[in-house]
Model the fold of this input.
Amino acid sequence: MGEGGKGPVTLRGQTLTREEVQHHTSKDDKWVVIDGHVYDITQWSQRHPGGSRVISHYAGQDATEAFKTFHVDLDYVKKFLKPIKVGPLRDSDQQSKQIDRDFDALRETAKKMGLFKPSYTFYVLMTAHVLILEVLAYVTLWCFGTGWIPYIVSLGLYATVQIQAGYMSHDSGHLSITRTTKWDHLLHHFYMGVLKGVPPKWWNHMHFQHHAKPNVMHKDPDVRVEQVFVFGDKMPIEVAKKKRSSMPFNYQHRYFFLIGPPLLFPVYFFVTTIRHVITRRLRLGSFWIVTFFVRFFYMYMPFFGFWGTVAHYFAFRCVESHWFTWVTQSNHIPMKIEKDEAKEWVPLQIHATCNIEKSAFNDWFTGHLNFQIEHHLFPTMPRHNYYKIQPLVKSLCEKHDVKYEVKPLLTAFRDIVKSLKHSGELWQDAYRAYHVE
Done:
């Protein structure tokens, strides 16, 4: 067993087998493979900037492609590997598959094409439009009062500010705005902390897990919601076997409209962010939450009073929640959701994602997450370049017989409901089979 990232004395420096690595998956003993070498991440995972869980999800597995994909400065992060190195992997276990080699070649092609270089003009304009909309949301009430029409206009503008600021914080969180860790982290605090009042470390904790193991049961937090929903073909059966009947999952495609989009932000995200900063004692995260509410109440209490401002907060969060849920889940809920099978990077990402057709509106409305496949394959690539790499990704998928799926926007929305209905029916049939005589 590893001891604090030092590696077991009897094995350190020795050639290891893949089977040996696969035994080290417990909380107190975690190994990963990167570029043909084995590393003990047991203690390092607790100090990992991206969070402990995202790296721990690869315990016992080859994390090479994830390592290359998530980090923008490989030379820098490799310095942290030497102290935790256990030894080399046996040559016969190092043979990568053709799809991995082709993906590495595609990544190098993208670099040569300059697709990882951000357009500062694009991001300046996107930031400007967010700030202008925030001013308009306030000015609308200041100039026209709090009647229903100016209120609805202001509410829509402020919800748009929040969703678009969310897209910008998503870009900076993935280090794709400046490609410099220091500056992107600073921008992440601005978009996420200042404009949204959300602790950036909470976002890191949740979102990086999703990217590391998308649609993987018990690892991706986006599908770790079996208390209220079951997704895919396997989760409903697993839940039914355990006799978890707290929710009538056969009706989830109906109650989704009541507790899914309306409550994700105002309730679930609100509670989890507060809990995250308290349990992890995040002073800076607490600071951003407090300063956001101070600014928000200072601006809107003159219009609505205290309780009216509280209602206004939850109203725009509800609108934002609808927008966010339909956009993000249209790419994932209808796709494969299964247990961790240690798949190669490309099939792991593409089987869990689909795209939405490109248009000027779709690009803006989804924050370019209509190119979800490209984003998951290259999360640090600036989003304005996704469409440029798309033809090459399609060619890679065609070569290796990996389905590349693109849908119209409304079809993608409808597929969420259809998928929920299908999964609910699977749960009902399995529950009856296992528990009803």
Summary: DSSP finds 18 helices and six strands in the chain. The two ends are 47 Å apart (CA to CA). Residues 1-10 have pLDDT under 50 and may be disordered. The beta strands are 25-26, 29-34, 37-40, 85-88, 355-356, 406-407.
